[in-house]
From TrEMBL:
Superkingdom: Eukaryota
Catalysis performed (reactions): 2 glutathione + H2O2 = glutathione disulfide + 2 H2O
Gene Ontology molecular function terms on file: glutathione peroxidase activity
Signal peptide: 1-17
Protein known as: Glutathione peroxidase
Lineage: Eukaryota, Metazoa, Ecdysozoa, Nematoda, Chromadorea
The keyword Nucleotide-binding is annotated on this UniProt entry: no
GO biological process per UniProt: response to oxidative stress
Amino acid sequence: MLSPILFCIIAASVVVAQPGMYHFTIGYYAASHLIHTFFRVLLFLLLHNCSTFLLNVSLSGPKMIDETTRWSQCKDVNQSIYDFQMETLQGQFTDLSQYRGQVLLIINVATFCAYTQQYTDFNPLIEKNANGGFTILAFPCNQFYLQEPAENHELMNGIMYVRPGNGVERYKPFSSEYLFQESCPQTVEKIGKTNELMYNPIRANDITWNFEKFLIDRQAPQQLSV
């Protein structure tokens, strides 16, 4: 890349070294022309490479994900979910062993996610399976696009009056704070360290966005990511 510039300088020096104003003028303009040409070629190459890159990106498009691959069995571990605790919105720790023998649906939620309307599906799901020992554990998370900025004391109001809002108190768990607050831990910036809570059985690529769901049967640690 430096050789054309060195050539211009040498050429200019040789010509300028000749006696007389005529030779000086010719040398000056020759060097200027060569330098100008060099930068024009350099600019052309840069623009060409950029346009080629953008064209390749536009033609390839975003990477498509096969959603069926997300229905997978989580890896086996020595510990089960019942060996851990979670901290509720009120700052109290709850032993997950109290859910032993129940079917658990674990969801990472976010108030300002596009999937927030799924909240309205949780309560009928709980009521329909109430006699069968079914519980939903919702974990607010601010990791994905900062879609859960609420503090712990703000989170329930955000759900009731903002998203999904619209007087969501008509749904039993939200109006009486039955089950939901008891099953809702504190807001976290990230899903968590792999050796904390029940995250150890979960691979990094098992959670790609908010409202991922993990279905745990009565004989945990068997889990199914849905």
